[in-house]
Design brief:
Elements lengths: L1 H16 L3 H51 L15 H6 L2 H17 L11 H8 L1 H4 L4 H7 L2 E8 L7 E8 L9 E9 L14 E6 L13 E9 L6 E9 L20 H21 L3 H6 L1 H26 L1
Antiparallel strand pairs: 1-2, 2-3, 3-4, 5-6
């Protein structure tokens, strides 16, 4: 596939060179029309962004109710808790599995009396630990902090402002930092590049801004203190010095690598930037709107099915190319 793709542009270029001059002239006219289409498409995506902002306001009361149930601020009524279970799947469970589950539930209830349970404990932490993209960033020392995460919200830029969206991570008071909300702004571009208008495929994230975390003294998990021994060259005296060095943590998410203004970045930086953009998009499009399904694992089953379908299509495409 790679070989074919790399040869394809040169094949097209050669065929264009073989066209009569008068036909080439008309092809140039078609390209001008195509560029105008790209500009119209950019306007379309601007309106889509506005529509997203409008509907985000309609979703928000439901997300607020979700937050209140998770944190235990409100207790849902019996009517609100009614849900149609898939009885066929339940009946298919083996009796011994059911029994084992009942025993485990009983143990949990003994360990944590039901009357002491409030809301849905560790809701967001469970999602972080279950989703590969997020668990890859998660360190053991992050978990105690994320137990205090009570909500994640997405806010869209206002009309007339440059296109962007903001992720807001809302925390209850905790012993790690003073911030009630940690934010990450993703700046977007939705216009064709004048030098390459045909590459336009819709809005793309071009940069992100994090926030300053006001850590309590000695609680900053994004750094660690190390001790090093230094020996004086002349006197031979040995002394121990301590210094802080960067530490792996999810909370580095709020101190992102910045896109280079001139576009010149090393391979590692480019990968880190692309990963950051992918994670921001995943929070916006998947995690926040479908949080309960990631908590139960149902959304991940859907994601896996989608990946399998993509793989099957890819395999078919490769075989077709081979036959070509």
């Amino acid at each position: 596939r790679f070989v074919f793709d790399s040869l394809f542009p040169s094949i097209i270029e050669n065929s264009n060179n073989m066209l009569p001059k008068v036909v080439k002239r008309r092809v140039h006219a078609l390209k001008r029309l195509q560029a105008q289409c790209a500009n119209i498409e950019a306007k379309f995506y601007e309106e889509v962004h506005e529509l997203e902002r409008k509907y985000a306001a309609l979703y928000q009361p439901l997300f607020d109710k979700r937050r209140d149930i998770i944190t235990g601020t409100v207790e849902p009524t019996d009517a609100e808790c009614e849900w149609q279970s898939d009885m066929d799947e339940e009946e298919e469970l083996a009796a011994e599995v059911k029994e084992k589950a009942s025993i485990e539930d009983a143990k949990k209830e003994e360990a944590t009396p039901e009357e002491d349970q409030k809301g849905i404990p560790e809701f967001w932490l469970t999602i972080f630990k279950s989703v590969d993209m997020l668990s890859d960033m998660l360190q053991e020392h992050d978990e105690a902090i994320l137990k205090h995460l009570k909500d994640i919200q997405v806010k869209f830029s206002e009309p007339g402002q440059p296109m962007s969206f903001t992720l807001e991570f809302h925390f209850e008071p905790n012993g790690y930092f003073n911030n009630a909300v940690l934010t990450k702004v993703y700046k977007m571009k939705s216009e064709p590049d004048p030098s390459d208008p045909f590459s336009f495929e819709g809005p793309e994230i071009i940069d992100s801004d994090g926030c300053q975390i006001d850590w309590h003294k000695g609680k900053d998990v994004t750094v660690k203190t190390i001790k090093k021994k230094q020996k004086h060259k002349g006197r031979g005296v040995v002394r121990t010095v301590t210094k802080q060095v960067p530490n792996d943590s999810f909370f580095n998410f709020f101190n992102p690598i910045k896109a280079s203004p001139d576009g010149e970045m090393d391979e590692d930086s480019e990968f880190s930037l692309a990963t950051d953009f992918e994670i921001g998009h995943f929070f916006r499009e998947r995690i926040v709107p479908r949080a309960v399904l990631y908590f139960t694992g149902e959304a991940m089953e859907d994601d896996e099915s989608f990946e399998e379908e993509e793989l099957e299509e890819g395999d078919e495409e490769v075989s077709n190319l081979c036959s070509f």
